[in-house]
Amino acid sequence: MKRNRITKVEPVSLYVPLKEKIDAPISVPHAAALADVIFSGYRTTLVRIQTEEGIAGVGECMVRLAPTATLDIVRDLAPILIGRDVLDREAIWELLYGTMMNRGHSRGFYTEAISGIDIAIWDCAAKTLGVPLYTLLGGRHHEKLKAYASSLRFREMDIVIAQALDFKKRGYRSMKIKIGRNLEHPEADIAFVRAIREAVGDDVQLMVDANCAYGDDVATALRVGRALQDLDIYWFEEPLSPDHIDGNAQLAAALDIRIALGEADFMCYGAREFLARRAVDVFQPNISRTGGITEARRIAALCQAHHIPYAPHTGSCSAVCLAATLQFAVALPNFLIFESMQSDWSKAQPNPLRHDLLREPAEVFQDGCMVIQERPGIGAELNEDVVDKWRIA
Ligand SMILES: [Mg+2]
After folding, report:
1. How many CA atoms lie within 13 A of 19 on its CB side?
2. CA of 102 relative to ligand 1 center, distance in Å
3. CA 168 → CA 79, 108, 196, 242, 261, distances in Å?
4. How many Å lie between the centroid of ligand 1 and the Cα of residue 196?
5. Is it true that domain 6-130 has CATH number 1.20.1250.20?
């Protein structure tokens, strides 16, 4: 009987400061005031787990601020993990969740910490059996994963169009556009989207992401949504505040364009609200935030029960999250499309946590799709030089 117990849990926080200040590359609320804090650098917290059989696993906790806050939570939880069998991954998840389920920490940093631990345990479990993660999750449902280029960000119009044409030339048949800077006069954003549509042609699938720009303003989001559907935009992502479930339901009912969201959400209980209230047409959880592989599987099943496709968010995560997400997605029957991040916050300073963190890249892009690698676990071997260079704790 195969058993493989955890002997060491080590969280690692990485931070890559941006050398030059940048404007907010996406439309977060209060962007001008907050850009220096939110977009001052690339961050992540990884979780490394070792076992008695000499297997090493890694997971990622999604981090946008204070990576060491997540690191402290992982350190506090580590004693629960020592001596546990990595094959008991879902039982371990329940123990981790049990520490805080009645204390109000079922969202935010706490759940992000559990997410990174859970991914590392699944990585160890698959490696223990010598199989890729997707085999442990039930096997391949897809030969390859359709991918979209993410994202065309706020820049001069000719630069953005050149970028869109470059995506197309490289084989992307689907790409996403950031909007939401012109809250009083959204016509400027519509014109921006129209210019890209005209440049790339009708055979390219386009999505739009507002990153919650319209807040609670359902009327403006409706107006923008109607204009976007006239431009044959596939989905309208995060038009409103993620807490405005009724507003999103109103948009989903009134518009033909699909409402996509979920990157700001946690756990199956959050997903259930959006799904049951018909507030979403494409659900986009991030495994490094929502509760790891264990929880994302429950969310995927809930989506399936509501006939809603699952389009995994990867956003500004590191290559560890990308590797795990690819393995997870290929085992998902209701997978829709993979977010292939093609733009860093700073053009002058690309994100080394995405490009250089792994010895072998997880993402292999061919003809509009991601090809899944045949490696044990999540297939992510860390480049220790890069870890050492950017480690802050
Ligand atoms: Mg988004």
Report:
1. 5
2. 30
3. 49, 36, 12, 31, 25
4. 19
5. no
Could you tell me the distance, in angstroms and rounded to a whole number, from the CA of residue 312 to the centre of ligand 1?
10
Q: Are 391 and 330 in contact (CB under 8 A)?
A: no
Nearest-angstrom CA–CA distance, 333 and 346: 35
In angstroms, the CA 345 to CA 330 distance is 28
Report how far ligand 1's centroid is from the alpha carbon of 263 (Å). Answer: 7
Strand partners, 13: 45
CA distance 340 to 361: 13
Per-residue model confidence as pLDDT tens for the chain (393 residues):
778 999 999 999 999 999 999 989 888 888 889 999 999 999 999 999 999 999 999 999 999 999 999 999 999 999 999 999 999 999 999 999 999 989 988 899 999 999 999 999 999 999 999 999 999 999 999 999 999 999 999 889 999 999 999 999 999 999 999 999 989 999 999 999 999 999 999 999 999 999 999 999 999 999 999 999 999 999 999 999 999 999 999 999 999 999 999 999 999 999 999 999 999 999 999 999 999 999 999 999 999 999 999 999 999 999 999 999 999 999 999 999 999 999 889 989 999 999 999 999 999 999 999 999 899 999 999 999 999 999 999
* Phi-psi map region of 270: left, alpha, beta (phi>0 left; psi -120 to 50 alpha): alpha
Closest CA to 25 of 217, 241, 181: 181
Fold of the CATH domain 136-382: TIM Barrel (3.20.20)
The number of C-alpha atoms within 13 Å of 32 and in the hemisphere containing its C-beta is 2
The reported pTM is 0.98
The residue assigned the tokens 């799709």 is: 369
Spacing, Cα 58 to ligand 1 middle (Å): 25
* CA–CA dist 175, 194 (Å, integer): 14
Helix (H) or strand (E) holding 177: strand 174-178
Strand bridging mode 56-61 / 41-51: antiparallel
384-390 contact pairs (CB < 8 A, 24+): 386/352, 386/353, 386/356, 386/357, 387/12, 387/14, 387/46, 387/357, 389/352, 390/14, 390/15, 390/16, 390/352, 390/353
Going from the Cα of 281 to the center of ligand 1, the distance in angstroms, rounded, reads 14
CATH 3.20.20.120 residue window(s) in the chain: 136-382
> Where do the CATH 3.30.390.10 domains begin and end in the chain?
6-130
